[in-house]
Design goal:
six-stranded parallel β-sheet; 2 domains; Rossmann fold; three-stranded parallel β-sheet; binds guanine; 10 helices; about 40% helix; globular; alpha/beta; 11 strands; about 290 residues
Length: about 290
């Protein structure tokens, strides 16, 4: 008999974490006179990116971090952004630097990410930090998969020896998610747009992470009964409502635990950005 799935409440978990971050910021201020600082760079006018960046800056302020936001028009010369990054790398007020992705097509995204000091790379996208994660010795874990791992820990979800399937192979979510699951002892399959017979893979998953970017892409018949379903998607429907990659209403009748959208992974991403920024400041202060 299948009962309705337990909801993994990312919003509440993120709030709990953020209350703890506030205390860590106060402790660092008291002990070292250091206020953790985040600089966010946004290029262009993508409405979703504008919302994400504003949410990140607001979360910083609420937790007592210093933050600055740098906005450039979509046609800005990449050299201007690279010069700003060089300045932020040298700025002692700034412990974390985040360049919101995607960048406009005339940017070499990798070159921009490599320009960020690895010690300030709170997204964990610099090749050095990707390498550290791949070797199982992470220094900064990309915020979204980091948040998902926190949800597993909070929910007491055991990963060791379990079948985990990740749908999506992006550098931001799919790849680092797969590395974290491997490091945690799961048997990991990464599916993507070229995968044949996707359902044959997803039906085997004890843990399913969907990072596709398509509303209702994962349907209930694709799930193993009793699976843990993590929905990373944030999609806007024509009527303006947000929805995930998973057909939540049907999937919750098959899954054992499931994340909602909104209120699931999204708030955790922001919480882990704060965690990484505070961590960067603590390391810089020698703690
Ligand atoms: N775009 C979508 N997600 C992310 C993220 O986690 N970090 C950055 N920098 N850009 C993003």
């Amino acid at each position: 008999m299948i009962m309705t799935a337990q909801i993994i409440d990312g919003k509440t978990l993120a709030q709990t974490l953020r209350a703890g971050f506030k205390k860590r910021v106060e402790a660092l201020m008291a002990a070292q006179g250091v206020r953790p600082g985040l600089a966010v760079i946004l290029v262009g006018e993508d409405p979703a990116s504008i919302v994400y960046v504003n949410n990140k800056v607001r979360a910083c302020e609420e937790a007592g971090l210093y933050s600055e936001k740098w906005r450039y028009p979509a046609d800005v010369a990449p050299a201007v952004v690279l010069e700003k990054i060089a300045g932020l790398n040298a700025d002692p007020k700034v412990h974390g630097i985040l360049v919101q992705l995607p960048l406009p097509a005339h940017f070499d995204e990798a070159a921009v990410l490599e320009a960020i000091s690895p010690q300030k790379d709170v997204d964990g996208f610099h090749a050095e930090n990707v390498g550290a994660l791949a070797q199982g010795k992470p220094r900064f874990i990309p915020c979204t998969p980091y948040g998902v791992m926190k949800m597993f820990a909070q929910g007491g979800i055991d990963l060791s020896g379990r079948e985990a399937v990740v749908i999506g192979r992006s550098n931001i979510v799919g790849k680092p998610m797969a590395l974290l699951l491997i490091n945690a002892g799961a048997t990991v399959t990464v599916c993507h747009s070229r995968t044949r017979d996707l359902k044959a893979h997803t039906r085997r998953a004890d843990i399913l992470v969907a990072a596709v970017g398509k509303p209702h892409f994962v349907t209930a018949d694709m799930l193993k009964p009793g699976a843990v379903v993590i929905d990373v998607g944030i999609n806007r429907l024509p009527d303006g409502r947000l929805c995930g990659d998973v057909d939540f209403d049907a999937a919750k009748e098959v899954a054992r635990q499931i994340t909602p959208v909104p209120g699931g992974v999204g708030p955790m991403t922001i919480a882990m950005l704060l965690a990484n920024t505070i961590e960067a400041a603590e390391r810089e202060a020698g703690q």
